[in-house]
Amino acid sequence: MESQLKFKIAIVDDEEIVCKRLKKVLEKEGYEVETFLDGETFLGKMSSHPFHLVILDLKLPKLDGLQVLERIKAISPETEVIMITAYGSIESAVEATKMGAFYYITKPIKLDEFRALVHKAKEKVLLVFENKQLKETLAKYTFTELVGKSLKMQKIYELIIKVAPIDCNVLIQGETGTGKELVAKAIHYHSPRKHAPFVSFNCGSFTEELIASELFGYEKGAFTGATHTKIGLLESANGGTVFLDEIGEMPLSMQVKLLRVIQEKKIIRVGGIKPILLNIRIIAATNRDLKKMVEEGKFREDLYYRLNVVNIVLPPLRERKEDIPLLINHFLNKYNALFGKNVHYVTEKALEKMLNYPFPGNVRELENIIERAVALSEKEEIDIRDLPPDLIAFEVKTEEPPKTSPLEEQEKNYIKKVLEQTGYNKYKTAKILGLSRTTLWRKMKKYGL
Predict the structure, then answer these.
(1) Is the pLDDT confidence value at 220 over 80?
(2) Which GO terms describe its molecular function (predicted)?
(3) Contact criterion met (CB below 8 Å) for 184 and 192
(4) CA–CA separation, 316 and 334 (whole Å)
(5) Across the chain, what does the average pLDDT equal?
(6) Using 50, 70 and 90 to split pLDDT, how confident is the model at 429?
(7) 303-348 pLDDT tens trace
């Protein structure tokens, strides 16, 4: 983030010695700093070249600090302001924070406290900057829940825009928690079917009999307990889109029935005899390798090709880590609003820990972490101590394999352990093991990993 934004700081204080001292401290930290001895001169520069952070003395000649603060916020609402005050002016400093100042610091200034406060203000400014970039990136797509500006996500957005207006079936593949349903909804709401229903069904949550009655509906008296006619999900979605999640879990006998629905575009309710015409689009999703399942006889080849007209493969979060800060900000906004909290940012240490974590649960796991942290937080920041214990403790290590088992079993266990530590990131695993990716793939296949 910092490489995209040259952080500029203004110091406004009528004591030249204070300006020089603070400027020297901040320049050593790598900041670009300008000093001003009065508010009017500063505001003249601020109007044409806004600063990211202003260190502002409360007592100034002509315009006082509160008046300057008010003008700063009018010119550049994103600019943060740290007020400098004497002990006798604490009430005015508190008033300044109510007017939008980031915080205040009292004279004589303790340099360690000053550096820490500037650093926190900088983190907040950078987060706002990153969020603004994100909004600009996604503006042309108008996807409210899909977040990310990485090259891999840009390609996903482009594919969604291309496939949405075309009335064909789509197969979305990706690990658990990567956002398959969000992509399905984005396709639906950018398609000509957007005003009709979007109906979601999880194929892995029901028995074969329940799948049939849920999808196709049933007539009154079709079976014991069928006291009334029920319209199935496929029929209820007429004119719209049906999202079949975990399609790889659907029993083979139900796959035959689904294939017939796709081919004939009609259904018969359980216990019924009258065909009902359907006008639906099917988007299916899976975290399994359907092609491999076809080869193993666990998934029908004809259904696979009917569903896989357009294939969208979602990247796991560990392969688009540049999106993690944007996702964090998105979830902070979401759960601040939901819980009535005011958590502004994640500290650098906490962010670094998350950037080094493989997120086996992907975006869903990250959302859960931020939701938990916001719910429990009593401050304006999420620090490393606010993260779950397993994330805090996580560290990728290379270890000597145990010497108590046969060579092949020993190798299998070691590869499995490193795979788990890296969240099944084959690139990192191969690097840790000192293998080529091809060799790693062969060994994974050999050991059933």
Answers:
(1) yes
(2) ATP binding; sequence-specific DNA binding
(3) no
(4) 22
(5) 87
(6) confident
(7) 999 999 999 999 999 999 999 999 999 999 999 999 999 998 899 9
For residue 312, the cross-strand partners are 172
Closest by Cα among 22, 52, 53 to 37? 22
Residue 427 pLDDT class (50, 70, 90 cuts) = confident
Single out the residue in 262, 279, 313 at which a domain terminates. 313
Is 205 part of a structural domain of the chain? Answer: yes
Which of 313, 346, 367 delimits the end of a domain? 313
Q: What is the CATH number of the domain that holds 418?
A: 1.10.10
- Predicted confidence (pLDDT) at residue 172 exceeds the cutoff of 70: yes
State phi, psi for 9 to the nearest 5 degrees: -125, 140
Matching residue, tokens 């009593």: 378
Q: Copy the structure tokens of residue 281.
A: 């689009």
Distance CA(171)–CA(187), nearest Å, equals 12
